[in-house]
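[step 3/7] fold_predict: job queued, chain A
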Amino acid sequence: MKAIAIGLLTLLCCLFPLRASAAENDAPSTVYMTKDISPAGLMKIYQALERPASGKVAVKLTVGEPGGHHYLAPALIKELVTSVNGTFIDGNTAYGGRRGTVESHLKAAEDHGFLAVAPMDILDAGGEINLPITGGAKLKEVPVGANFRNYDFVMVLSHFKGHAMGGFGGALKNISIGIASPAGKCLVHTAGNSSTNPFDGPEKQEDFLEAMAEAAAAMINDKGADKWLYISVMNNLSVDCDCSSNPAKPEIHDIGILASLDPVALDKACVDLIYQADDQESASLRQRMESKNGIHTVVHAEKIGLGSQKYNLVSLD
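[step 4/7] structure written:
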């Protein structure tokens, strides 16, 4: 009986890897926050995590679709990125646009000022690899750019905002759809229906949201949870994503910078802060999140072991 019990426990651990951010008693994860949206504030919150980025460091960031202007400002992130000798990473889009090829994507990065901060690696320029998803409800694997394997550590630097399909874009979206290759993006958007057409969507919105969480799990588990950290900047809070070339004007005031070693807790804390903001200011963004049931991504990510919705918010101000 003891051998059977040990075998079952081992199987469960393989299916749903234990998150590194939670203790055995399921203690809340720590989310740090500062209202100081500045290079100094960004450095302060990074240092509070006490997980120094080491080895060859990838900085997952979206450079923004040309025409848009709410993406993270290069001047804001320069000190942090250069301090870890980071390389920006991203995957080409699946819907075309002006970031759909390596050349156009790098041109957007240059035009928006990012290449003056650090080099950028479009991960699928070197082909694709498939990352397995053990125990996934919607996906069995997710294709990512082969260059993903060239990095030892990933700093996920996200601009929290609304999103036309996911309700909101935070750390989990920045990892899953961001790092996935075009084929991987199609599989996430369609919950496994198609690797070539991102609009061949699933019958239920929740299927897409669950696929997004499962893709993030594949990427995090590939390197190990202790090789990641997550920082989200809550400014320019439009209802539209930085993938839009004509995003709506933000109606809500800038909130601050949040960071955690737990992407689930971080996304949940950002969502909670939107609901704690002035009702009139935040109405459009709340409606966008609710209309797409965006919180379900966080719920499923917790279910598959990526982190906890329980958190302690620690102010650094």
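[step 5/7] annotate
Confidence is low (pLDDT under 50) at residues 1-24.
The chain has ten helices and twelve strands.
exit 0
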